[in-house]
Write a structure and sequence with these properties.
Alpha-Beta Plaits, 6-stranded mixed beta sheet, 41 strands, single chain, 1214 residues, alpha+beta, 43% helix
């Protein structure tokens, strides 16, 4: 028992020991856990404390940033008080503010000087204040200085401060009083009190005049040179310079320290005498959308002349856009290229553009009295070899030789000048970075030519010096420079920040030019622009009705023709002016391509570009905006073009009108040849053209004056009734260029019902008195390039731009003249005649060739070409011809009056001096074609060729005429020689001269020489006559089809934007039917439809349809399925129908036309060759209609039923 108790005691003791051990271990664990938790908490609190301190610092920095941003945002603001609320729109408020500032502050400003205008506060009884944000700080300070001018008025102004700044300024006012009582100078600058001893504050004449900065949005600063009238003060008081404080200049402010090494003495800085010249590496302008983006980015930047590097655009062209002149030269696809953008207001100052190479271009200008040459360059990169670099500098040397005395050479030189050496004459004190070997070469070049590298003469912060940065943004170099020998005229060099996707930044020079001299330019005082909308049209009609109502009462018997004409044009001018004034329509330009969304994003990009420093989110957003905006501009421009094309296709089925509306520029004549020397000088080009047409239109020495009868019978009296005038007005074509008076056809057409009576009275008085308005004898000549060497003035067609009222009168007279002259025209003439076409003579010539080939008989054909036919006619020949063809005397006298006083001016980008028109008919005049073919008939009437030519069914065919395109025909070369000689002799009497170089002969026999004044005419194997190739080759029909197919494919790819784009298939089909098929099937009425020909036509159209639908031939989709989608007109069936209809038309002719005579003629006497005969034109017609097809064709209904049979094979084959 005791043993059990002892064991139990031991167990109890062990349990107590274990319990104590456990308690002790739990205490240790608890202490350890507590320690660990405390340590963890302590670490976390430390992190939180650090985060809190960081947040506190960030918050403080953010507050500072907001402080400066708010200060910057309100820096250019002024608040105007007391101005009544009369405006109803933002534009009116803006106009009111401009007028208010000009009236009360005598400060001239424009809309570009105002960035934002708005009223603040809730609308009540009192007028709300107006906050005006100016684009420049200088403009704001000038107005603040004139604050006292508002004394004794109900108006006052204050600077714009945040509320907490206003409260702080109020508190500081008390301290200002105390300090001023002490005799100290005290003032408040923003929220700080500035106190100085009174002797330290110097004022008066030593204070600098604050200049007006350019209206740009870039966040850069400029260095302002001292005005000329301050020159003596700065020279005599140089001690003051050391008192200027050393300070940083805030962005968009001016650096008030002029260049230290060399001062610039220049003319007083004013906007009228300042020229902004910029150079910029744009990285590419190969597409129009890139050019659109560039102009959008430069919209608010002052740059009169912008030199461009790395354009990457092929060609050497001068393009005139709505707002600028664009010149470029490029030779390597996708590389290099330089050019210029010149603002339109400098257009008349341009002397020449010269492209020396794809790396160097020269612009010469004369502005006032300053002759200036600007050389734009793009130097080879560091990876290029020394040969390329030397060739580049040789090109610049050549440009310098062609330049004037005053030169600016600028661009991407791919050279680093680095820190400058005081011993270098060409550089100033302010370099950037390190110099490389290319930089040393550039300095040597500057020394050789006495150029100053202007980038180094103006002290700038390093952030405002670099012009290129690497793709990763870590490396920044200054490699774009402006060099000049006009150092004293350069006020400032400035690196601009623009929101354009390029790794370069623009560099701009501010050039002081000589004061302008007043020119004696003529200004058009009347608004001649087109009526832009329906509202203007209605106002115009209403005003014209009022203005013309009193004309009949005003006119008296003694009123002259000039009085009547002036009254009518004044009525038109007054009505137009009133319509524009009431409508307040602004000219929005031709192509408003960018959408509102794109404009908003561009604005956002500009805002982000200004903010500094930028957060990571801002940088990412800016990067995304650059990519997005480029894509959206491309998309917007593409959408805009699509809408315009679809509009014109739906309304007029016209691609031509669509492209006319989408035309963004017109191309200048780049250079012209004077004797053997090419000139690019703009004044010389105009002089060459004027001299050429002055000689061309000069009256001949042997030109005898034609005396007209003084009397005529009553039946001859010409009278124009109102119905003729109304019909003439309604037939006027829209969108035609006006004459020198600027009146368009639209202006006359819209006012038809009000103009008919006064115009009828005017026209009849002109015919009665034979007096014409002096304006009708004036015209402008524009030049249209034809083909050949574009540097040869002979290869341009002169078109006379005549007054619209004259063209209306002329079109009415032309119809009356034709009634008289038409009966004198023979069937050989098919030009400018109703019922005739080019197919008449093409068909006749093809029939002759076919039948002479079949019977192996010789035939000689001469294709006559007159040199400047319309421009060479003697006026005496015109009056003699019209008299002989019984044209009423009133018409002849009136026309003679116009032609005797006729003058014209060559109009290129500028207009030349007037030249007297002593010969020729004016191309562009509705009367000219009728007059020309009448004179041509008078010439041929004197030739007496009754026994010459080819005998066809007892009649002689000696020639064919289509206007001035003449074909002489004969079986004998000797007879043809006589015909050429006599034609030349008689033509000269009327002023016409045969062109030896373009007059050719074609024959199927021996090539016996035929001479024109001892010079042999050229024999050819084929000739393009009226747009169709004719030849004695047996394969001529197939060759012509191949030619038409090639031309159709060229047309197809010229319309690639439509046919290969994303337009609806319906639109593409419309273009195919109206553009491609007519091109393919021109003159198909004269074709021989062999199996081979049918295959070629069908294959061509199917290939185009597959290309339109983007279907590959390998996909093996049936043509019937494709045709169901396109629903296009079948070209083969269409051409066969045209041939059958033409055959029926020829068979039904009853005017003894040679078209029918040659078709039904069996052919000349001769022997056919052995073997299978060649295909004839009539073969496929005979297969359907029989050998008596000409009789069958007389029944129109029966003949039309044959169309299905005639085209059946064609449809089956497709």
């Amino acid at each position: 028992m005791d043993e059990i108790l002892n064991e139990l005691r031991k167990i109890r003791k062990d349990l107590d020991e274990q319990r104590n051990t456990i308690e002790k271990s739990s205490e240790k664990i608890t202490a350890q856990v507590t320690q660990n938790v405390n340590n963890i908490l302590e670490e976390k609190f430390k992190l939180l404390d650090e985060n809190y301190k960081n947040l506190e610092a960030k918050f403080e920095n953010q507050e500072k940033r907001l402080y400066f941003l708010e200060k910057e945002a309100r820096k250019n603001n002024i608040i105007f008080f007391g101005i009544k609320e009369t405006e109803t729109s933002y534009s009116q408020l803006e106009n009111n503010m401009i007028n208010f500032i000009e009236k009360h502050f005598s400060q001239e400003i424009n809309h570009r000087d105002l960035q934002e205008v708005k009223r603040i506060g809730k609308k009540g009884e009192k007028p709300r204040p107006i906050t005006v944000k100016f684009t420049t700080l200088g403009t704001k300070l000038q107005i603040i200085k004139k604050k006292k001018m508002l004394q004794n008025t109900d108006f006052y102004i204050n600077e714009d401060f945040p509320q907490h700044i206003l409260e702080k300024r109020k508190e500081l006012q008390k301290q200002i009083k105390i300090e001023r009582e002490k005799g100290n100078y005290a003032t408040i600058r923003y929220d700080k009190l500035i106190i100085r001893p009174n002797n330290a504050h110097t004022v008066g004449n030593k204070k600098r005049i604050l200049p007006t900065s350019p209206n740009d949005i870039d966040s850069t600063r400029t260095t302002q040179a001292p005005p000329s009238h301050m020159k003596n003060i700065l020279n005599t008081e140089t001690k003051n310079k050391k008192h200027l404080p050393s300070r940083l200049v805030t962005e968009e402010d001016y650096d008030q320290n002029p260049p230290e090494k060399k001062t610039t003495n220049c003319i007083k800085n004013s906007n009228q005498n300042i020229l902004y010249i910029t150079t910029y590496n744009v990285r590419t302008l190969s597409t129009y959308s890139r050019l659109l983006e560039l102009t959008e980015c430069f919209k608010n930047i002052n740059s009169d002349i912008t030199g461009l590097s790395e354009i990457r655009k092929l060609g050497n062209k001068i393009e005139e856009h709505d707002e600028f002149i664009f010149y470029y030269i490029g030779e390597t696809p996708g590389l290099y290229g330089v050019g210029f953008l010149v603002k339109k207001h400098l257009k008349r100052h341009i002397i020449s553009f010269t492209g020396l190479s794809q790396r160097v271009a020269l612009l010469r200008m004369k502005i006032n009295n300053l002759e200036l040459s600007i050389i734009q360059v793009y130097a080879p990169t560091e990876t290029s070899n020394e040969e390329e670099l030397e060739a580049f500098y040789k090109s610049i040397d050549k440009a310098i030789q062609l330049s004037d005395k005053n030169i600016i050479a600028m661009g991407d030189f791919n050279a680093k000048i680095g820190q400058t050496d005081p011993n270098e004459i060409a550089t100033g004190n302010h370099g950037y970075g390190d110099r490389n070997c290319r930089g040393k070469r550039l300095i040597d070049f500057a020394h050789e030519n006495n150029f100053a590298i202007m980038n180094t003469f103006f002290k700038k912060n390093n952030k405002q010096r670099w012009t290129w940065r690497s793709p990763n943004g870590k490396i920044k170099n200054e490699i774009d420079y402006i060099l000049t020998n006009l150092q004293r005229n350069i006020n400032n060099i400035q690196v601009l920040n623009v929101t354009y996707p390029s790794d370069h930044r623009p560099v701009r020079a501010t050039l002081n030019i000589l004061p302008k001299t007043k020119s004696r330019c003529k200004f058009n005082q009347c608004p001649r622009s087109q009526l832009k909308n329906e509202k203007e049209v209605q106002i115009y009609k209403q005003m014209l009705n009022n203005n013309t109502a009193n004309l009949q009462e005003k006119w008296r018997e003694e009123s002259t023709v000039q009085d009547l004409y002036d009254d009518i044009t004044n009525a038109l001018d007054t009505s137009l002016r009133k319509a524009h004034e009431v409508s307040h329509t602004t000219n929005q330009g031709k192509n408003q391509a960018l959408s509102a969304r794109t404009h908003t994003l561009i604005q956002r990009r500009q805002e982000l570009q200004k903010i500094k420093p930028k957060s990571r989110a801002m940088k990412n957003e800016l990067k995304a905006l650059y990519k997005l905006i480029s894509k959206l501009i491309n998309l917007d421009y593409k959408t805009h073009r699509t809408k315009v094309i679809e509009k014109h296709l739906n309304t007029a089925n016209s691609v031509k009108k669509a492209y006319k509306e989408l035309r963004t520029h017109k191309v200048w004549i780049e250079e012209l040849k004077d004797n053997t020397i090419n000139t690019q000088n703009r004044a010389e080009i105009l002089k060459i053209a004027t001299k050429f047409y002055k000689n061309l239109y000069s009256a001949p020495d042997n030109n005898c004056e034609t005396e007209l009868p003084n009397t005529h019978t009553a039946e001859e009296r010409a009278i124009i009734d109102e119905s003729e005038v109304t019909k003439g007005i309604k037939s006027l074509k829209m969108e035609k260029s006006p004459g020198p008076d600027g009146l368009t056809n639209e202006v006359i057409k819209f006012g038809c019902e009000y103009l008919t009576k006064p115009l009828t009275q005017l026209f009849n008085q002109i015919l009665r008195t034979s007096y014409t308005p002096r304006q009708w004898s004036e015209s402008d000549i524009i030049l249209l390039y034809k083909k050949g060497d574009p540097n040869n003035i002979n290869n341009y067609r002169p078109i006379s731009l005549l007054p619209s009222l004259y063209k209306l009168f002329s079109s009415i007279i032309e119809k009356k003249l034709k009634e008289k002259t038409e009966k004198y025209q023979p069937i050989e003439q098919a030009g400018f005649r109703r019922g005739f076409s080019t197919i008449d003579h093409i068909h006749s010539l093809e029939m002759l060739i076919e039948k002479y080939q079949e019977f192996k008989r010789p035939i000689y054909i001469v294709f006559i070409d007159y040199q400047k036919a319309f421009d060479s006619l003697f006026h005496s020949a015109i009056w003699k011809t019209l008299l002989s063809q019984e044209v009423p005397l009133d018409y002849i006298k009136t026309l003679k009056k116009i032609y005797n006083n006729s003058t014209s001016r060559v109009k290129l980008e500028t207009t030349g001096p007037p030249i007297k028109i002593g010969r020729g008919v004016r191309q562009g005049d509705p009367l000219s074609p009728t007059i020309f073919i009448a004179v041509l008939e008078a010439i041929f009437e004197k030739l007496k060729w009754e026994e010459f030519g080819i005998q066809i069914n007892g009649r002689r065919l000696s020639h064919l005429r289509f206007a001035d395109d003449i074909v002489l025909l004969s079986e004998s070369p000797s007879q043809l020689q006589v015909m050429v000689n006599t034609l030349q002799e008689e033509s000269r009497k009327a002023g016409l001269e045969i062109n030896l170089s373009k007059t050719n002969i074609m024959t199927n026999h021996n090539e016996i020489p035929i001479y024109l004044e001892k010079s042999p005419l050229t024999y050819v194997k084929a000739y393009i006559y009226l747009g169709k190739q004719v030849s004695f080759n047996q394969l001529n029909n197939d060759l012509e089809i191949d030619r038409r197919v090639n031309m159709t494919w060229k047309k197809f790819w010229s319309l690639k934007e439509i046919l290969k784009g994303e337009m609806a298939i319906r639109m593409k089909t419309k273009v195919m039917n109206t553009c491609l098929i007519p091109t393919l099937t021109y003159a198909c009425q004269t074709w021989k439809f062999t199996t081979k020909v049918k295959t070629k036509i069908t294959t061509c159209q199917r290939s185009m349809e597959r290309s339109i639908l983007k279907i590959k031939k390998i996909q093996k989709i049936r043509h019937t399925h494709i045709r169901q989608k396109t629903k296009a007109t079948d070209a083969l069936s269409h051409s066969q129908k045209l041939k059958l209809r033409w055959a029926g038309h020829v068979a039904r002719l009853n005017d003894k036309r040679w078209t029918k005579e040659t078709t039904l003629w069996t052919g000349p006497l001769g022997q056919r060759r052995r073997g299978r005969p060649n295909a004839r034109w009539v073969d496929d017609i005979i297969r359907v209609a029989g050998t008596q097809w000409s009789r069958v064709a007389e029944n129109r209904e029966h003949w039309s039923f044959l169309e299905e049979a005639f085209t059946f094979h064609g449809e089956g084959s497709c």
